[in-house]
Amino acid sequence: MNALGLSMIVKMGCICSRESININGSRYTVKERLGEGGFSCVDLVEETSTKKKYALKRITCHSIDDQKVAMQEINYYMKLRHPNIIELIDSTFKGSADIVVQATSEAYLVLPYYKRGTLHDYLTLRSFNKNHLDVNDILRIFTEICQALKFLHDFTPDPIAHRDLKTANVCLTENMDPVLMDLVIKNSCRFLCSCKSADLWGAGCSEIAGYRLERCSMTYRAPELFHVESYCVIDQRTDIWSLGCVLYALLYFKSPFDIVYERGDSVNLAVISGTIYFPQDAPFSDDVHELILFMLRVNPTERPFIDDVIAKTTSLKNKIENVV
């Protein structure tokens, strides 16, 4: 057999071996793996009849509790309709989780496919050449992220906190509009930490009032989630801290605490100290830095709510436009 014939067989074998998944009567062919995390993976899939591409998120559930978390994510996506929050196209469960018999189930979420990928991907590419975004583009993207967060924080009847806001959880459309994704946590906006719960957290407990610490990325995590005070109130202002880290990343390509992590220093200590370093040769004004510091206040009671952030951002945009 010649090389061409062998090559054709190999290619045909690859095509034949591609996974095909049926979700509520629609068949999808898996094209490639887009990404993996600790709790899920995302594949690029193509709907067989329309040839349209989607992102298929698979969440492996090892327990009934895991299934509840996955179902909660699906329910949130079904309720939320906002141009800057990702839309759920379809979903289903396959199998049933059972710890006793070591069985797992899988949740399948069909989501829009964004060719540009995430804001993290985009900023990483620009960082290679230190190609900073224009401040007007930064504030436009940031404002749209704020509007999505406001929609969550003002949601009725129960306000929602994202709890894992970061550049990797923001997709970008072809027009460079941000779209929030990954609402995977118990998202009650506000809960009270008792003395007992604070002690448990300090002893290494990873959950308080249904809040799973490991689902919140360390370099975007608010100080009150590193060190829980007795009888404190944890509310939606954890998202405001993360939002400050996102704005810093829009300026300098990564969270200020990513830099700490990469040096091998303690992120915990850096976050609790609240010390933020801005590059000396930065092409941005002090006003933009002040907006970041406005959000990165260690004491959550001194941290602004989303409406305050939007008002300050609007004022800054107007000031920049008047200067131009």
Structural class call reads alpha+beta
Report the helical percentage: 25-40%
Mean pLDDT: 84
- Let me know the CATH homologous superfamily of the largest domain: Transferase(Phosphotransferase) domain 1
Per DSSP, the total helix count is: 10
- Given the C-alpha coordinates, what overall shape results? globular
Largest sheet, order of strands side by side? 1-2-3-4-6-5
CATH architecture of the largest domain: Orthogonal Bundle
- Rg (CA only): 22 Å
In CATH, what is the class of the largest domain? Mainly Alpha
User: How many angstroms does the end-to-end distance come to?
Assistant: 69 Å
User: How many strand elements?
Assistant: 12
Please mark out the parts with pLDDT under 50 across 5 or more consecutive residues, or reply none: 6-16, 192-211
Overall tally of domains: 2
Q: For the report, how would you describe the main beta sheet?
A: 6 strands, antiparallel
The string of secondary-structure elements, in order, is HEEEEHEEHHEEEHEEEHHHHH
Stated plainly, the CATH topology of the largest domain is called Transferase(Phosphotransferase), domain 1
Report strand %: 15-25%
Domain Protein kinase: 28-316
GO cellular component, one term: Golgi apparatus
GO molecular function: ATP binding; protein serine/threonine kinase activity
Catalytic activity: L-threonyl-[protein] + ATP = O-phospho-L-threonyl-[protein] + ADP + H(+); L-seryl-[protein] + ATP = O-phospho-L-seryl-[protein] + ADP + H(+)
